Amino acid sequence: MVSAIQPTIDTDAFLAGAQFADAFSITTETTLTAREAAERMLGRSPWWVDVLMKLRDAIVTPLGLKTAKSARHDKVEKVGFFPLLSETPQRLVAGFNDSHLDFRVVIDVAPAGNGQRVTATTIVLMHNWIGRTYITLIKPFHRMVVRSMLNQVHQRS
User: Fold this and answer.
1) Where is 106: in which H helix or E strand?
2) What domains does the chain contain, in order, with CATH numbers?
3) Beta partners for residue 110, in sequence order
């Protein structure tokens, strides 16, 4: 079961001055690297998440913001459609910078009993009113999406 938790990482180490951070975790019965967990989580989306992303892209395109479609075509290494920023076996960091906000998702894995705890921490640094408005509007959906995506780590164990 996915649980909302207090972020335990130093968010300033990833985005100094970030104004938003949340974290969710799940315990698996298997041992995964951070990349394996991130690929299970971000490699595919439930259909309803794809619908939300298409709606999001249609809304933000006129504002000149990056879209999921454009991110998929960037010539950088990615996990899902997020550019990979750093990676160790225990931690993967992905994200991007845009004019309205900078975003990071940090996937951590750690031993937990006979399995492993996988934690997804989202960190956001907002640059302007568009970024603040965007976060306010997507926050309820963000929580549902992260829970659903993180649950895929467990379902595919």
Assistant:
1) strand 101-112
2) 3-155 (3.30.530)
3) 117
